[in-house]
Amino acid sequence: RRVGQSVKVALAVAQExxxxxxxxxxxxxxxxxxSGADGDNCDAICKVLASDDRHISPTRFHNSVHNAPAGYxxxxxxxxxxxxxxxxxxxxxxxxxxxxxxxxxAVAAGVLLVAYEAPYPEPLQAKRPHPSAFGLALVLMxxxxxxxxxxxxxxxxxxxxxxxxNAELEALRQQIPCARGLPLAQAxxxxxxxxxxxxxxxxxxxAVEIEACN
Length: 214
Hints:
Layout: H1 5-21, E1 29-33, H2 39-49, H3 58-63, H4 68-77, E2 83-86, H5 92-107, E3 111-117, H6 124-127, E4 134-140, E5 150-157, H7 167-175, H8 182-190, E6 194-199, E7 205-212
Parallel strand pairs: 1-2, 1-3
Antiparallel strand pairs: 3-4, 5-7, 6-7
Helix pairs in contact: 1-4
């Protein structure tokens, strides 16, 4: 009840991904990616610090750290596996995907990638507008399993990121940093072979090669 919208979004998509993969959450390492995390909590703390009464709620302080969703996920899932939290501004989804794929390759174990955003309250929203909350999660495994959708490979390239043909989805992709992963989600949903280029740290992009498992 006391967590912000960003934590709720992150945990919801994480649980959906684990359920769809029929994976054991306790066995998955986790990578959480967000460009800003809990804007509501940040706004509330700033207002208190700007007032005459500067006593910050312990709950507010506890939720102010960028790895709060990862901590709540560990509590909710019972996972004792490593959790990594990354932030790379508009490139946060690409940074999260790269980190998760690197871990899968390095330790040959499953990794849960959770990318999430939530809108800021004013006046922060005017400076960093996010039109809505957004979450995207993937369970990445080193080997093919009965619930696998595709095999993916990534590489750093100097290329322009793909856009969405649907105007509304493209607006989300442009306006919400972690929605930069929408072209990948669309390609996976298509069920066929594909190659998508995702936004990363300019001038580099992430090219993702997709090979369907079915």
